[in-house]
């Protein structure tokens, strides 16, 4: 009945998006062990770190070392918020770089003190440099469904922002329900529209599980033909601007569903749980995802 | 794109299925306060208690008092595992009675020390008496997707068991993924088949959230035309025969999704959370459902 992709790619965001929102500073060696375990589990694409100023995000102060020390995986992303970050990322040898912006003006003002237009104007020369260097560029688009300040975001505004990114030559659009408010019909409708509008660009879906709809939203996005999903081992992360928000959807839960649906991921859930077990002692809260709970009771 | 029901009914199972699997014995007055709060939230159908022997399930020792003390709601179910339980339920004035059996032989042997056939043979006269008394009979069918002992359950076996119940005159089939292993495609396929095979019987879907697919399974069941869902406030409950299994899908999370999809439930999520707040101090673990976490941070 359902026409679903036969193969999907997981973009593991735990080491960057997950840990960036974690208040405990995790030692570089523990991050590297976590990353290695994720690779061992079969993860082919990963957000590794961010070349943000360590003044603002001390957790990411070891970005250069993380890039240099990690063996190349299929595709490793680093985030760079601006030109300086992009330069540092290139120097460290990064081959795939992610940039980000929200659809919502208010969210961008709060987050990076720029309007959406100002943020896009600032990103344009950065993306031009990256593309000239042959870098794979991923554009992460936050608040694509709801904004904590502006409420419902119109699909047309998401498409318009994506169109600007596509015209700048980005290779991938990662479209996020940052505060975990989207429902499965909204997920299906936006991702279907994105697939139809941008057939030649990779499109990833990024869900947060705040209101427990993330897995249902992924199922709906699969129905819309999406075959790339961001997720975070252990559900690490969360949105610092949304009180009470829980984290990213958990890689182990997403992969479990995809695997049981017979959709190829190349990832071993048990080994993702091993990676979670490595990082859990170093983060500030116990990890209670579905598959990790079962793993701890040896029920996987 | 999706053709979904416009209206759904929630069968709240917290006071029975939830508390029956709770190790702390909850005082009758606290149960009654919980039930009252659930009614205030708009719940129209509820599993109230079980006329099981208090020797086996001390938590349900106050079944008679619970039935007598609760104001009539749209439909209140009590469980009765056998003829004696049915007699006690009728004496207490119950108008709707639920009976239960698993599809899997091994599960029934473990649970009630009978094969599936033996269990059905024992239920036949009970159902005949109940129907003769004009009672609404709900048949709860467990292990309809997977069994902890037998693995995957064939759809044909579920249909065959349901056919026997329908021939006995039951009014509703509540079909359960008891150990939380079903995926959304399996949910869609079984519920679509049930809808087509039994067009004149009410069909409810009962999911556990052990592997975090319950909400996605409900979304898939909606696509199959299912408009009745069992759920438990606070996600109370769980399967005592499956180690590590978490509880029923949480009413507040199910209703939130349905409400945001524009599907009528008649239930107020915030008031369900008020009911959860009443019961939480009396159960043995903290309640961490999506909407209840937000409620506690006043973000609902």
Automatic annotation (TrEMBL), chains A, B:
<dbReference type="InterPro" id="IPR013785">
    <property type="entry name" value="Aldolase_TIM"/>
</dbReference>
<dbReference type="InterPro" id="IPR000891">
    <property type="entry name" value="PYR_CT"/>
</dbReference>
<comment type="similarity">
    <text>Belongs to the HMG-CoA lyase family.</text>
</comment>
<protein>
    <submittedName>
        <fullName>Hydroxymethylglutaryl-CoA lyase</fullName>
    </submittedName>
</protein>
<dbReference type="InterPro" id="IPR043594">
    <property type="entry name" value="HMGL"/>
</dbReference>
<keyword id="KW-0456">Lyase</keyword>
<dbReference type="Pfam" id="PF00682">
    <property type="entry name" value="HMGL-like"/>
</dbReference>
<keyword id="KW-0479">Metal-binding</keyword>
<feature type="domain" description="Pyruvate carboxyltransferase">
    <location>
        <begin position="8"/>
        <end position="273"/>
    </location>
</feature>
<dbReference type="GO" id="GO:0016829">
    <property type="term" value="F:lyase activity"/>
</dbReference>
